[in-house]
Design goal:
Layout: H1 5-8, H2 12-60, H3 70-76, H4 78-92, H5 95-98, H6 101-114, E1 118-120, E2 126-128
Antiparallel strand pairs: 1-2
Helix pairs in contact: 2-4, 2-6
């Protein structure tokens, strides 16, 4: 459902300029957000790996008897407890969403662009789809 330039009153050049400006804005936003999302992904991966490795030590050193308490077991394995708390704080503050911000913005743009027979790639470049009859 690409809008005809005759019915909108815009010239073909004006429409092309608008599309180019829109594409520049999307690519600029994606380029701006990528370094930040890489940092959040790196932080999440490192913290998950740290929880896994310290969790392995926690499980192998765990001694379950009649006086077992999870709090005392976590107190004895402070590194695992701190890693677990740090990962929980990351998730509660939305780090998993920040790690995927550019993908979220691109998917929302694709939803809107679909109505105009347009799409965009992962870098934000516009893709003009053929007209569907």
């Amino acid at each position: 459902a690409v809008v005809s330039t005759q019915s909108t009153g815009f010239t073909k050049e004006e429409v092309q300029d608008d599309l180019k400006a829109f594409e520049r804005r999307i690519t600029r936003a994606v380029r701006y957000l990528e370094p930040k999302s890489y940092r959040w992904k790196f932080l999440l991966i490192i913290s998950v790996l740290f929880v896994l490795f310290t969790g392995y030590g926690f499980i192998t050193n765990l001694q379950i008897d009649s006086n077992f308490s999870i709090m005392s077991a976590l107190y004895e394995n402070k590194v695992f407890a701190l890693a677990l708390i740090f990962l929980a704080l990351l998730i509660l503050t939305g780090a998993h969403n920040r790690a995927d911000t550019s993908a979220i913005i691109l998917s929302r743009n694709r939803l809107v662009l679909h109505e105009y027979n347009l799409s965009c790639n992962d870098k934000g470049k516009l893709i003009i789809k053929p007209k569907v009859m």
